[in-house]
Amino acid sequence: MALRELSSLEKFLGLKKPNKYSTQGDRKVPVLQSNSAPSLVGLGTIATHLAQEAKRPDLLGASAEERAVIQQWLEYRVARLDGCAKEDIKTILKDLNAYLEDKVYLAGNHISLADPLMYYGLHHIITDLAVQEKEKYLNVTRWFDHMQHYPGVRHHLPPVVVLRNRVYTSGHH
Amino acid sequence: MKLFVSEGNPHCLKVLAVLEISGVKCDVQHVNHEEKVVPFLSRPTLPVLHLPSGQFLFSPNAICQYLFEVSGKQTSKQSHQWLEWEATELQPALMHALHLVAVQGKTDSAKALEALLSFLEQNLSKKTTAFLTAETAEVADIVLWAALYPAFLENGLKIGELKSTRSWFEAVGVMPACKASAQSVFKGKGLEALKGYLQKQPAPHGPQAQHKDSHIGSSGSPAESEDSDRVMTQEEIEAAAQIWNQKIDCQSKPERKHPILPEKGKRNVLITSALPYVNNVPHLGNIIGCVLSADVFARYGRQRGWNLLYICGTDEYGTATENKAREEGLTPQQICDKYHAIHTSIYKWFQIDFDFFGRTTTQRQTEIAQDIFWRLNERGFLQEDTVEQLRCETCERFLADRFVEGVCPFCQYPEARGDQCDKCGRLINAVELKEPQCKVCKQTPVIRCSKHLFLDLPKLEGSLEQWLERSFGTGDWTTNARNITRSWLRDGLKPRCITRDLQWGTPVPHPDFAGKVFYVWFDAPIGYLSITANYTDQWEKWWKNPQEVELYNFMAKDNVPFHSVVFPCSLLGAQDNYTLVNSLIATEYLNYEDTKFSKSRGVGVFGDMAKDTGIPSDVWRFYLLYLRPEGQDAAFSWADMALKNNSELLNNLGNFINRAGMFVSKFFEGVVPQVTLQEEDKRLLAQVGWELKQYIQLLDKVRIRDALKCILNISRHGNQYIQVNEPWKKIKGGDTDRQRAGTVTAVSVNMAVLLSAMLEPYMPTVSETIRAQLQAPPATSHVMLQGEGNFVCSLPAGHHIGTVSPLFQKLEAEQIESLKKRFGGQQSQTINQNNAAPKPSAPSAAVVPETPVKADPELAKQLAAAVAEQGDKVRALKAQKAEKAVIGEEVAKLLELKKQLALAEGKNPEPSPQKGKKK
């Protein structure tokens, strides 16, 4: 999974030459092999490295604060979201929903590395949600839908139908 | 910039050490573990860095990286990699191992951690630099050092040699910044400080368990891990054996004599449960939220020998009652009488043991409310103002707050009520609502002026804050209660209207405001006082006696501000030495099978239906208390209820108690045999004593759900004890074996008596049944729950027990399925009906048409006229106060016309899905 995700990320970043990856351990942690430098372990570390390689510092944040917020969400992805217990999923969605209430992107006012990585990590969860649940976590689904339509992000994942248009608002009754 | 940290939390050690090293200027605030700093996270998380931009950093490693960067140092890729390893690999294994050692008292740490530590050891032994990645300590060094700090504490984890790791650990630890922060976080208390932190964390999954599919619905309930045996010290074991042999008087039990009044030198506890509103049947969420929770605490307190009074009653005034009366063709008083009786019988069935269950529509209520009013008026805490109020011209009356709905002016929630928004929780003035609608006729109300009185909350804010600080410091306030109260104060208090243009209420005695009544939220909490006054003339001994009385308020979280801000302000302003709340216990919400309880949709179990399920009241109590929404919302689930009944009550608790009793009657002719305690028995006594002590500590702090876990742990210990010793085999052996069987049986049956005492607050009938079956002396519970708890031998050798029979019944899958269907709401039925009837013009609420409906402008015009005409007809009928059935029929026609109109206009007549939430 993580490997396909990294390959999608490479495309999103516009990296021409694909890197070589392997995985290690039961959790299939990705490892970036390189001939010229020591190998790198861990999705967040590799993704950050790739963004630097692609000369996309904008994706890593323009200020120290922004960089910290982006790193925080990368860590959240790998430490909280990946492999979380089933009963934690609702809490995660609830928290994200509250966080995204007044936000378009996870960090700052433009896309950052945190957005595609959280999108990849959440995809299987959002796929499993019922329509009512998608409505319940409205801000998450709005952000998610935005991400899957953002040029160059989706790649290896199937699109998820997230919202039905309600023809009526409740005001008409 | 501000950094929030707590004691004993290794993550806080990380950030404090890095802060010190980086030299970045930043305020540091020490808070307790349950402080919710980050508004969007549901679980309290620390440390937190509040950035100058207003954003929150809640990941300790991100905070560390940020502080390093601000001080001009970059995080290298290697360092970054270690940080990720720490967060994803080391932390889960470490938390699991520390939890086993510090909380459960186990000595061996987890295997998974060993592998990780040896990985670190290898890396450190091969390195060529002084520290992990460089010649100086980088951010990764500090983070790993702090993470491992608790593991290297004295009596911490048993970890192997790890030579390189140790010398690296010491090299980091001697840095002054690390030394100072370790002192500041662990305060020299070592493992104890860590334990305090770990206990507040959700029980960690083992690293392997993480990927396993865990059962949904078990979240939020007390997680009883099978391997939670705590290792007892020799002293604890000897002490437990001594307590067991104490001679005690189990015969004389203190009796309850009414009226109960405060007594000097005793612990006087006054317990109130939020007054349920009279015009509705309470649902399970209402029951667990207030009356049942308070009942458990009250029963427990009585066992502990506190001098305790538990009062409650129905809240009867207000427009909702007036309206219900109009609906049912009765007077408001008749409605109150009718529903008061319904409430009383429901609580009786649930065995809620009030000392007095009263009501608010009494002469006492008028006297006390008016007295408080005059006192506030004399002291200048009331101001007069003209208010713009919403009036519905169709219904010809001023609209009470809950009869207006509209869009919340703060958060745009479309179904905000006139007094408060359910979504953002802010208070609203009904006239500020956008797009207001009369809830009854859906017309837009007009704004009219009327003169009203206001409680001057800003003037009282100072004394309120002073008192709150004391009450927060000394009492038990649930975290949500503290947070809600703080957020109210942070937003600043505004004058609050206490009068209303209604009839059904306590009259305002002021001549300038004749014909008005008190606003229900000024009036209702005074009900606590007046209900007590109806119980005893000497009510002031409870309510004007803050020196000797401790007041506990139980409620659901939506009620908090009225009990922590508004009502205390009324009492503080009245300046009559009133007893104010010391401990405020608020629950979160209970949902029904992941949706909300809804009377109108018939979703969920309501108080009066519970007894029709055939499931005993005690089992209902047990399950509701087992999932009591502490800390976060919980959901009632039939499948889970059956599971908990069958696994916990039947197989664990009931099985143990029944076996213990059966051994006495089958093998020893119903007479308790002689006990010769061996080392193993003493260890069991110590284990049980330890659980009992936990139970008492938890219930003293009103941690009702967690304390229930201790009971289940004891019977689990008991089952294992019987299983290992096999008395049914030993009874057939020689003298030594027979004696052993006797000891095991006698210890077990005494444990059953202890369990009956601990169960009393939760399952009173079961508790009584156990005592009757074992013919236990009356005061055993009382004795066992004194002090820190005493597991004494209360059924000595020679005691005759009664007839033993099973306590619980299995809940079968079919039974549960049929109950689930019965209480699942009408939605599924509606779908079926609509699918059966090929009527395309009336799609049901649950069916969303996939294709847009075609519009027909000509038909729409005709229908619009018909709707207008029918609407006039309905309004006319309502104005004439026609019979309900007649109006209902015409309204149905109107709705059908509106639906057709919508279709003709090409709109989707699907009502919004939130519609049904309203009750």
TrEMBL record, chain A:
One of its GO terms (cellular component) is protein-containing complex. It comes from the Eukaryota. Residues 49-171 form the GST C-terminal domain. CDD domains: GST_C_AIMP3. PROSITE patterns: GST_CTER. InterPro entries: AIMP3/p18_C, Arc1-like_N, EEF1E1, Glutathione-S-Trfase_C-like, Glutathione-S-Trfase_C_sf. PANTHER family: EUKARYOTIC TRANSLATION ELONGATION FACTOR 1 EPSILON-1 (PTHR44490). This is GST C-terminal domain-containing protein. It comes from Coilia grayii.
UniProtKB/TrEMBL annotation, chain B:
Residues 72-197 form the GST C-terminal domain. Residues 836-849 have a biased composition (Low complexity). Residues 200-231, 823-850 are annotated as: Disordered. One of its GO terms (molecular function) is RNA binding. Residues 859-915 form the WHEP-TRS domain. InterPro entries: aa-tRNA-synth_I_CS, Anticodon_Met, Glutathione-S-Trfase_C-like, Glutathione-S-Trfase_C_sf, MARS_N, Met-tRNA_ligase_1, Met-tRNA_synth, Methionyl/Leucyl_tRNA_Synth. Its EC number is 6.1.1.10. Residues 825-835 have a biased composition (Polar residues). It is an enzyme of class 6 (ligase). The keyword Cytoplasm applies. SMART domains: WHEP-TRS. It is found in: Cytoplasm. GO terms for biological process: tRNA aminoacylation for protein translation. The keyword Nucleotide-binding applies. Keywords: Aminoacyl-tRNA synthetase, ATP-binding, Cytoplasm, Ligase, Nucleotide-binding, Protein biosynthesis, RNA-binding. It catalyses: tRNA(Met) + L-methionine + ATP = L-methionyl-tRNA(Met) + AMP + diphosphate. It comes from the Eukaryota. GO terms for cellular component: aminoacyl-tRNA synthetase multienzyme complex; cytoplasm. Belongs to the class-I aminoacyl-tRNA synthetase family. This is Methionine--tRNA ligase, cytoplasmic.
